[in-house]
Each structure stands twice: as structure tokens, then as C-alpha cells.
Amino acid sequence: MKLPRVSRWVTLVGLLVLAGALAPATTALAKDDPLPSWNDGAAKKAILTFVQRTTEESSAEFVPPAERIATFDQDGTLWVEHPMYTQVVYCLDRVPAVVEAKPELARVEPFKTVLSGDHEAIAKLSMDDLSKILAATLTGMSVDEFAAEVEKWLATAENARWKRPYTRMTYLPMRELLSYLRANGYKTYIVTGGGQDFVRVYSEQAYGIPPEQVVGTAAGTTYGYHENGEPFLTKEPKLLLNDNDAGKPEGIHLMIGRRPRAAFGNSTGDRQMLEYTGAGGGARLMMLVLHDDAEREYAYGPAQGLPDTKVGTFSQALWDEAKKKGWVVIHMKSDWKRIFAFEP
Amino acid sequence: MKLPRVSRWVTLVGLLVLAGALAPATTALAKDDPLPSWNDGAAKKAILTFVQRTTEESSAEFVPPAERIATFDQDGTLWVEHPMYTQVVYCLDRVPAVVEAKPELARVEPFKTVLSGDHEAIAKLSMDDLSKILAATLTGMSVDEFAAEVEKWLATAENARWKRPYTRMTYLPMRELLSYLRANGYKTYIVTGGGQDFVRVYSEQAYGIPPEQVVGTAAGTTYGYHENGEPFLTKEPKLLLNDNDAGKPEGIHLMIGRRPRAAFGNSTGDRQMLEYTGAGGGARLMMLVLHDDAEREYAYGPAQGLPDTKVGTFSQALWDEAKKKGWVVIHMKSDWKRIFAFEP
Fold first, then answer.
1. Segment B152-210, tens digit of pLDDT
2. CB contact under 8 A, A196 and B240
3. Which of A68, A203, A254, A321 to mutate to test the interface with B (most CBs of B within 10 A)?
């Protein structure tokens, strides 16, 4: 069809207007759903409602930007913790290097068992044994040496089930939640039972959370000098903060100095952090991830008849407290459309 | 003079152009001097050069915004510390209330001496005596009760020499420096030998520094429950971090997890923080405030023959290390045009 000159322009303008009308609609749709990996349900609604109530200036529960603090447990809340915490895998992987430096350890338990490679025996190591391995692999070196070792390990180590780097084992819905809160003026913190120095190595890359916003189990360091006079810090086996259970609110006070407005966890180790958060005035959001998806990830509790576990225990008592106090349980199976970013 | 119509317009346009040309010039002048309370000199120049070198994208020493960390000692660096640290004045002022709650203390030293009001005797109290007073006035209460007490005290207490609230005893040139660094993407931290919980009460108001960016001497807390089940944190007399000397870099690692790009202090207690900062690669700025202005503030060292002091000692050894390592000494007397905002 050959249109007269003017009509052709009119049509072109019409198409542009149409495109213009469509483009914002598409953008608006994406903007309207900041949590695309979440299914519609109580959990997603609780998040959206909380953000609206605390950030709209007309809201009676408006929270000034400076007070918008959100704290996240890491293992089992932001990334996979089963069958074993990533940091424990790192420590076990480091044992050969530690023994190479101190050959006498090869004949001493628990190092002997770890070197044997006998998975069943390793899985049976006691907490006391694990403590010895953690002390040997997490202390005694400079903080810079430690960070370099962790970085090197993360670059090649893979999760055994998914054959992916550990930093890709993060939950996509939780990363969307982190971004959504930050876009609404919330300062997001990790508050983890894991080692503070360990998590700080990758927190920025994995979660967009800078090292100074990672609170974790922390040991002391000692300031000293190399022979050339250059100062350095040595990691010491002296526990300053056991950032689990009551240690979480204690760690939040020590490192942040403000009560969070929102707190997210998945196990009994997060109970006190959620209690402390909830005890503040005004709108607060407390959420717990329940691992009830054996197919796509793992299923463990023992709350609600799920299999018992020592790694990330979600007890029935925690479930009961959550129901009583209005904490929102995130059901991994029904609340999350996608779990990992690498899923098709 | 009655101009023809067109000419009148031309003149008006000319005046507007002139005004336009002047207006930006005025703005540019204000913008060009972000440190108006500093005299031109080596100190001011060092600051301006450092910021330029680390923030201009074309600079070989450009520092990514995330790594722009600047740490400031408080007492003697950001506000007056003579004749006695403000926090010690607070603790002495709190003694009557502590004795009211525990009347048996009235007959026990050092409380008896403090209650006597004998300034000479109080000034002679030993470090051990002071420790007892600090423990009695800084621990044993909930963190919320403590913050409320400090806030109440700050609202009425006054510096004895200037008859002003303590939060107005801040150094204007240093507040300009804080603002200038922040305007250039630096995250500003206080790293103080003072109590972390004490400084956090007023850091936002006095310096624009939020509580989570205050690192200080810190004691542990214990999580517990009121009878109604509400949780709270009690301040315990258990030292976690003595944020002085080597404790400053140790505290920076614990609470921030990054090496600062710039560090500011005024006494031997800041030496290790400046050493640690300077030992990093690339452009770094280390500065020390020297109190050499007995007339407008105080004069103490004993560096450079200034009177000796136990409060904020600037030793000759520190002076020598500064000169050797290229740390910049801020001479209060010659570098600061104004010291306090309330000066005429």
C-alpha cells in the first residue's frame, strides 16, 4: 500500500504513540512486581505491605530512612546450608594445607580422620572435633592471608549436588527481597552464625552487601609488625561474639547499635533476633524460611513433621512461637516460584 | 533616561546576563572552598589533594566509592577533651544517682571522694578508682535505659569553660572536613577510645555520623527477658574491645572489615590506626591535630615543647613518626580560622 506522504507520517506517529503507550505499560508491570520469583501468597503480601506501611510518608507507621535496618541470617536463609554449612566444607578442605605446614598433625585426631577422606567417619565428628578443625583453619594467619585463601577456594569449589560455585547457591527470591528493601531505603545486614571474616569475603558479590554490613561470629585479632615494620592483624582463637541465639541481638547491638525493623531467619538460632526485632514499636516484619521442598532443595524441620536435622533446626517450638507472635513463615515449596537464578 | 523600547529590553537582557554571570561565580566560590574555616596551608592542601587524587575518575589513584572509608578519633580530634574527657564528666555526674540506688556505696571509695565534691581530690583519683566509677555508671542497666540517661544528661550539662552543651564543643573545621569527605563519597566513621554506646547517643546530631558508624570501646551485653516476656539487653562489665592503641586497628577490622583510606587522630592512642591506614597501597591520608592554641582552646603535647598531659598525650615520638611517615600535623593555632561554630 502506498499512502500519501502526510498519511505515512500520521501512521508513523500513530505507531510511535502506540509503542510509547505499550513501553511504559511493560515497564510498569516489571516495576509493579519487585518480587517476580515469589508466588502470590501470605509471605509476599506481608513483605509488600510492610514496605508500603513503613515508607509511604502519609503512613502512620512511616519509618525515617536512617532507621530502616533489615537483618538477614545467611545459612539456610540466603543460601543453601544442607547437607553442611559452606564454611565447614571450606575448613575441611583446608585441612591438607594445614597439615602440610604442621606435618605432626597428620597423626592426630580429628585431622587424621579428615585426611582419610572417609565421608562417613567425617560426618560423625563431634562438635569438639569440629572446633579443633575450625581453630586450625580459621586462626593463626593474617586477616589478609585468610581473605585471599577464602577467595581462592570460592573461585574453584563447587556445591556437590548442583555442581555450581557456592556463591551461586543463593536463593533468588531472597536476593529480590534484599534489592527491594534497599530500593526502599533499607540498609540490609547479614547477621550470621558463620564467621564474620569468611562471609565478608563474598557478601558484596553474592548479595550486594558490603563487608561493613556483615555481623557474624567473630574472633579477636592481634596487631603486630612484620620485620620490615609493616603492621598486620593476626586472627586469634579468642571468641569475641558467638553470633547465634542470644548472640544475634547482642551482636546487632555491638555492631549496628539500632534495633532492626525487619529480620529474616530460618532456624532456632534466629529466634532471639526475631524476638528482639518484634519487641520494638511500630511496624516490624519477622519472617522464617521453612525448608519444605525436598525436590527442588531440601526438607527439614522437625517442625510440622518435617525430617529432623542438626543443620538449621526449625523446631516445633519455633513454629509455635512464630504463629503466636505473627511472624510469617515462608514456605519454600509454595512461596517460591524459582529458587536459584540458574534454574531454567 | 528614557530609552527606546528595544534598548530597554537589551539593557534588561544585559543585566540578566550579567547577573547570570555573577551568580554562578558566587556559587562556584562557595563550592571551591569546602573548608572555609581552614586557613590556606599544608594541612588544607593535603586534604584537597587527597580527595582529588582518590575521587577523580581519570586519577591513577582513583578509589572506588565502596572503598572510601575515613576514620576519626573523637576526643581531641572532633571535640574538646580537656581538661577531662566528656564521658568521664558524665560518669562523675552519675555517681549521686548510683549511690541513691545503692546507699552503701556512700561510705566506700572512690564514691565517697566523688560525693565530697572536692575537685582536687577527684582529680587525683587513680585509674583503678576511675575504672570502678566507670563500671558502676556504665554497666548494669539496659541499653535503652543507658541511652535515655545519656540523652537526658546531654540536654542540660554544660562545658565549664564555654558554658555550652557538650555537643556544641565540636571543632567546626573537622565538621567541614567530615561533610567534605561525605560529599565525595567517603563513609565517615568515629573510632574512639570512648564508650561506643555513649558516643552513639549523639554522633548523628553532633557529626552527622549514624550509630552504626561509631566504633568505640565496647563491653558485652546479655540478652534476657522482662517478667512480661519482653526481651532486653543488659550492659555487662565485660570488655570486648579496648578501642585505643592497637585496639583501634583491631576494632576497625572487627566492626568495618576494611582498611581506611584516611585516618585522623590527635594522640598516641591513634598511632596504630594511622600506621595501619598508611600501610595500605595507593593514596592514603593520615592527619594528627596538634593542640597548640592555649588562647582559643588548649595547648598540650608534650611534643614540640608543649605542656605534658595525661589526657590526649601527643608525644615527641608520635611527632617524629608523623614526620618520618608523611603524616600531616594540623596546627590548631595556624590551620584553623575558627575553632567553634559559636564563635563570632
1. 999 999 999 999 999 999 999 999 999 999 999 999 999 999 999 999 999 999 999 99
2. no
3. A254
List the single residue in B196, B211, B256 with the smallest CB-CB distance to A258: B211
DSSP 8-class letter at A239: E
Do residues B247 and B53 lie in contact, with contact meaning Cβ atoms separated by under 8 Å? Answer: no
- Determine whether the interchain pair A246/B211 forms a contact, defined as Cβ–Cβ distance below 8 Å: no
Record the pTM: 0.90
Read off the amino acid at residue A329: V
Mean pLDDT of chain B: 92
CB B192 within 8 A of CB B219: no
> With an 8 Å Cβ cutoff, are B66 and A253 in contact?
no
Residue A56, helix vs strand vs coil: coil
Which ipTM score applies to this complex? 0.90
Cell triple for A83: 547437607
**Summary mean pLDDT of chain A:** 92
- Name the amino acid, one letter, at B300: Y
**CA nearest B255 in A: which residue?**
A255
C-alpha cell at A253: 547491638
Nearest neighbour of A221 by CB, restricted to B197, B233, B253: B253
The per-type count for chain A, helices as H runs and strands as E runs, is 14, 7
Closest CA to A233 of B276, B283, B73: B276
How many CB atoms within 10 Å of residue A323?
10
In terms of DSSP bridges, do strands A231-241 and A214-225 run parallel, antiparallel, or are they unpaired?
antiparallel
Q: Who's near A194: CB < 8 A, 6+ residues apart? A: A74, A75, A85, A86, A87, A216, A217
Asked if residue A169 lies in contact with residue A340, where contact means CB atoms within 8 angstroms, the answer is yes
A253–B233: do the CB atoms touch at under 8 Å? yes
Cβ-Cβ contacts under 8 Å, B69 against chain A: 212
